[in-house]
From TrEMBL:
It comes from Spinacia oleracea. The chain crosses the membrane at residues 42-66. This is Ectonucleotide pyrophosphatase/phosphodiesterase family member 3-like. GO terms for cellular component: vacuole. Keywords: Membrane, Transmembrane, Transmembrane helix. The gene is Spnplp-1. The keyword Mitochondrion does not apply. GO terms for molecular function: hydrolase activity.
């Protein structure tokens, strides 16, 4: 969870062409009809040698070409074998385990040896350059987008903390009243179709919905002190139930490496250790499933909710410099959200703020741009809710907003920035019968995951912002 209140690397493929044979032709060389001279003899020997070399090279090239063609044919046969979903060997129906490693920035998987995570990658399907979170790139909005397929304005969780402008009620990460949580999360979708779901922590899973009452044996209330091992073992234990009683959908949540990321930023050795520990938890899960003979039958999704970027207090912007009162501010950083009293014009405030920020009189002012929410870039999908305050500020990567200078001089990590920043990307790794081995797919937004899960479980999902056809681009079809 949050610890505070509130792009792509280019792949260079050289395309240099090296000639197999190189001939030099000199038109000035002439031959005599008379007896060959010494120079002509040398030329003749040279030509014969070159011709012989050419023949050998041609034969070698032909051999290599035929070998490559043969290998390609064999490769083609291998691909044909894996172009359809694998049959279940022990289970009688598909099962999905959805795992979240909070704040697992894309690239963390390469920080240290992660054999278990890479086992899933190498034998499954992954987003080659990471999973794209929704905006704002915060924990609660993104976790709920993953399980509903909806952008935050549509599922209602527009921030980790916010105020309902009509009622004045305040939402926090401890708010479980159904009025906040719109949309239909996957556990409710599954239950609505008469199937069992189990949640071991996930934002929104404790909320009572029309078809989900958070059953005590299958819905664990959040308690961050419960060891990761216990969480994994509980999920594994569900597979000791009779096959028809095993939940078809399960969630599993880890707070790391987000917890460490906020304290030390993304590049500290603490992050590396946290990633190694997450890998051990994945290994523990795999071992438990293998022991029960169901690992290859289960669909495992490993995702994160957002990335992480380093921040330091030298990258600060102070609202006091813009004469914005603190009681107007709903959130400071990295998402600046301002709700002025009704007698003030939001448009005039935005104009004055941007003018001040660009004046050169505000420290780091050029690194913040303020918008009326309806004028935000459409790609952010962050305007269609009355819950979103009328004024939204977008910060450059790594910058923060505070009310006034406190001279803390602290460095750490943050997220919540524009989801276009590569540092905000997280991971998508999927392993199971409907995922091709070793396949890389282009990056996509996490609202697509809902339809992937409902397609695997063969249940009709609720309306959402994902594409109905997206599963066809990721999942193997059934034979």
């Amino acid at each position: 969870m949050e610890s505070d209140p509130l792009h792509s690397p280019a792949h260079h493929h050289p395309n240099s062409k090296t000639a197999l044979l190189s001939f030099h032709t000199d038109s000035s060389i002439t031959t005599s009809a008379a007896k060959p001279t010494f120079q002509n003899k040398v030329l003749l020997i040279s030509l014969l040698s070159t011709t012989f070399t050419a023949v050998i090279a041609a034969v070698s090239f032909a051999f290599l070409f035929l070998s490559a063609t043969s290998a390609a044919a064999g490769e083609s046969k291998t691909i044909k074998i894996t172009t359809t979903a694998r049959s279940l060997t022990k289970l009688t129906h598909p099962i999905v385990i959805l795992i979240s490693s909070d704040g697992f920035r894309f690239g963390y998987q390469f920080k240290a040896p992660t054999p278990n995570i890479h086992r899933l990658i190498n034998n499954g399907t992954s987003a080659e350059l990471g999973l794209i979170p929704v905006f704002p790139t915060l924990t609660f909005p993104n976790h709920y987008s993953i399980v509903t397929g909806l952008y935050p304005p549509h599922h209602g969780i527009i921030n980790n903390y916010f105020v309902d402008p009509i009622t004045g009620d305040k939402f926090s990460m401890a708010s479980h009243e159904p009025k906040w949580w719109l949309g239909e999360p996957l556990w409710e979708t599954v239950a609505k179709h008469g199937k069992k779901a189990a949640t071991y922590f996930w934002p929104g899973s404790e909320v009572i919905k029309p078809d989900w009452d958070c059953p005590s044996n299958y819905c664990i209330h959040y308690n961050g002190s419960i060891p990761f091992e216990e969480r994994v073992d509980t999920v594994i234990s569900y597979f000791d139930l009779p096959i028809n009683e095993i939940p078809v959908f399960m969630t599993l949540y880890f707070e790391d490496p987000d917890h460490q990321g906020h304290q030390v930023g993304p590049d500290d050795p603490e992050i590396t250790q946290a990633v190694i520990n997450i890998d051990k938890m994945i290994g523990r899960l795999i071992k438990g499933l293998e022991k029960r003979g169901v690992f290859e039958d289960v669909n495992i999704f490993m995702v994160g909710d957002h990335g992480m970027v380093g921040t330091c207090d030298k990258k600060l912007i102070f609202l006091d410099d813009l004469e914005i009162p603190s009681n107007w501010v709903q959130s400071y950083t990295p998402l600046l959200a301002i709700s002025p009293p009704p007698e003030f014009s939001p448009a005039e405030i935005v104009a004055k703020m941007n003018s001040g920020l660009q004046s050169g009189k505000v420290v780091n002012g050029k690194h913040l741009k303020v918008y009326l929410k309806e004028d935000l870039p459409k790609r952010l999908h962050y305007s269609d809710s009355y819950r979103i305050p009328p004024i939204i500020g977008l910060l450059d990567e790594g910058y923060k907003v505070e009310q006034k200078d406190s001279n803390k001089n602290e460095c750490g990590g943050a997220h919540g920035y524009d989801n276009e920043y590569f540092s905000m990307r997280t991971i998508f790794i999927a392993h199971g019968p409907q995922f091709a081995k070793g396949r890389k797919v282009p990056s996509f937004e996490n609202v697509q995951i809902y339809n992937l899960v409902t397609s695997i479980l063969d249940v009709e999902g609720a309306p959402n912002n994902g594409s109905v056809s997206f599963p066809n681009s990721v999942l193997l079809p059934h034979a």
